[in-house]
Amino acid sequence: MTTWDMKIENGTIVTDTEQYKANIYIREGKISAVTHEQLTGDSLETIDATGHYVFPGFIDTHIHSRDPGPTYKEDFIHSTRAAAAGGITTVFEMPNTSPPVNHAENFDRQVENLSKKAFVDFALWGICVGDLNNQHLPSLQQKGVIGFKFFLGVRSTRKNIPAHVQLQTWNGRRYSSISRW
Predict the structure, then answer these.
(1) How many of the other CB atoms lie within 10 Å of CB of 36?
(2) How many helices (H) and strands (E) does the chain have?
(3) 3-class DSSP state for residue 45?
(4) pLDDT in 10s for each residue of the chain, 181 residues
(5) How far, rounded to the nearest angstrom, does the alpha carbon of residue 108 sit from its chain's CA centroid?
(6) Cα(45)–Cα(22) distance, rounded to whole angstroms?
(7) If you ran DSSP here, which 8-state letter would residue 162 be given?
(8) Where do the H-state alpha helices sit in the chain?
(9) Which of 9, 35, 58, 64 sits in a 20 to 30 Å window from 135, CA-based?
(10) For residues 181 and 164, what is the distance between their CA atoms, to the nearest angstrom?
(11) What is the distance between the alpha carbons of residues 69 and 81, in angstroms, rounded to a whole number?
(12) DSSP 131
């Protein structure tokens, strides 16, 4: 009887605070144990990670798959397959797609679109185009965007920027930061 789907043994586990030798036991696609000891039971697959570092999955917080939109540049299937091959387990998709993630309905459409194509976990950025969609920012935040990309040159003025956004200038260009409301 098999106890483990996979066992990664003798690797050097790397966390944000330490490195240590251990074995990782996986069952039903989830890590069941990380331990210095050899646990009992057979494994369908065993990887000897002696001399290798074992990292948690990496996160890419800024990707442009342009899906839907000009996918001849890149699409979400290929973006997330490449991410997975490189050890990235989560990507944050930028909102300048066609249509953009500028209100809750487009957020829902994008989640449905990308969920069928994703090889890794993903989150979505929302887009802010000033007075063209300021009223939709709270509902996008409630839907779960991880942040907002600001395109302030579209048709907005400084007086139309929501109160939770602080504008900053650097070398004559405007940049923004956002605080959670």
Answers:
(1) 8
(2) 3, 12
(3) strand
(4) 669 999 999 999 999 999 999 999 999 989 999 999 999 999 999 999 999 999 999 999 999 998 999 999 999 999 999 999 999 999 999 998 999 999 999 999 999 999 999 999 999 999 988 888 989 999 999 999 999 998 866 554 455 555 555 444 444 444 444 443 3
(5) 17
(6) 17
(7) -
(8) 76-85, 104-115, 137-143
(9) 64
(10) 7
(11) 19
(12) G
- Report angle CA 139, 144, 82 to the nearest 5 degrees: 135
pTM, rounded to two decimals:
0.74
Bridging pattern class, strands 88-93 and 58-63: parallel
Q: Which two tokens stand for residue 60?
A: 């890419």
Distance between CA 59 and CA 87 in Å, rounded? 9
| Token digits of residue 67 | 């899906």
